[in-house]
């Protein structure tokens, strides 16, 4: 299947009763929009503070005062990074829960949406711990690799593409009562993506126009983009499993 065909079947899966299907992602969408605004505000604050510190550096001879200012800025940066990590992990967990529902919708196994119970599905079905463990593990590993400038970037990219199907794999292993731990899930995902990482990368590139619109709209395009892109990724997974890519 081509990228255009994958997007077409994703749109078709979303077409009927789109509003309720979108609401399955409402918490990740809102958190993403809030994060967009807070990240920009923090970036502006750091720029202003850096400018003030360097101005004071040239105007004063008191090195200790300047060091205190620099320390305060770095503390703010570290706290902001930690908060971003926590929020992004929470978004990833809630997104995984919504993807579980989207897989069932795509396969025609879910005709009706009960918003509250479906949104809290991971708690009701007892999957929360497994989803959280998988999400946190992948987030921590990729986060640490990204901090390893240059030498960590290549393995980070390879792992992120290789593990891109992990949530869908987890869904099927839980449904088939074949769950053997997160490393089995990650290994299965990586094997599934052997020879398909570049195709997945090209498929992701087809959304670049939407990401640009998302940037211009300060995140409000996400009300369409997040459901659409995630359903498209479900379509990619299904096509890969059926060897139709």
Automatic annotation (TrEMBL):
UniProt keyword list: Membrane, Transmembrane, Transmembrane helix
Superkingdom per UniProt: Bacteria
Signal peptide region: none
Coiled-coil positions: none
Membrane-spanning segments: 21-42, 85-106, 151-170
Name of the featured protein: Beta-carotene 15,15'-monooxygenase
Upper lineage: Bacteria, Bacillati, Bacillota, Bacilli, Lactobacillales
């Amino acid at each position: 299947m081509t990228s255009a065909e994958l997007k077409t079947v994703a749109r078709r899966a979303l077409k009927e009763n789109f509003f309720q299907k979108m609401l399955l992602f409402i918490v990740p969408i809102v958190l993403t929009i809030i994060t967009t605004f807070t990240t920009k505000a923090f970036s502006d604050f750091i720029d202003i503070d850096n400018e003030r510190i360097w101005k004071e550096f040239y105007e004063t001879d008191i090195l200790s005062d300047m060091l205190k200012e620099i320390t305060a800025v770095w503390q703010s940066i570290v706290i902001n990074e930690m908060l971003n990590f926590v929020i992004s992990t929470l978004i990833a967990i809630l997104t995984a829960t919504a993807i579980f529902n989207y897989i069932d919708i795509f396969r025609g196994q879910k005709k009706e949406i009960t918003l509250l119970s479906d949104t809290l599905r991971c708690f009701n079905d007892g999957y929360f711990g497994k989803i959280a463990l998988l999400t946190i593990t992948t987030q921590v590993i990729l986060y640490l690799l990204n901090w390893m400038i240059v030498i960590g970037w290549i393995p980070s990219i390879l792992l992120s593409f290789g593990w891109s199907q992990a949530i869908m794999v987890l869904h099927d292993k839980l449904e088939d009562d074949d769950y053997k731990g997160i490393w089995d899930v990650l290994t299965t995902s990586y094997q599934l993506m052997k020879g398909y990482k570049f195709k997945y990368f090209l498929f992701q590139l087809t959304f670049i126009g939407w990401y640009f619109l998302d940037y211009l709209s300060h995140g409000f395009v996400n009300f369409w983009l997040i459901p659409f892109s995630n359903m498209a990724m479900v379509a990619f997974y299904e096509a890969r499993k059926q060897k139709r890519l």
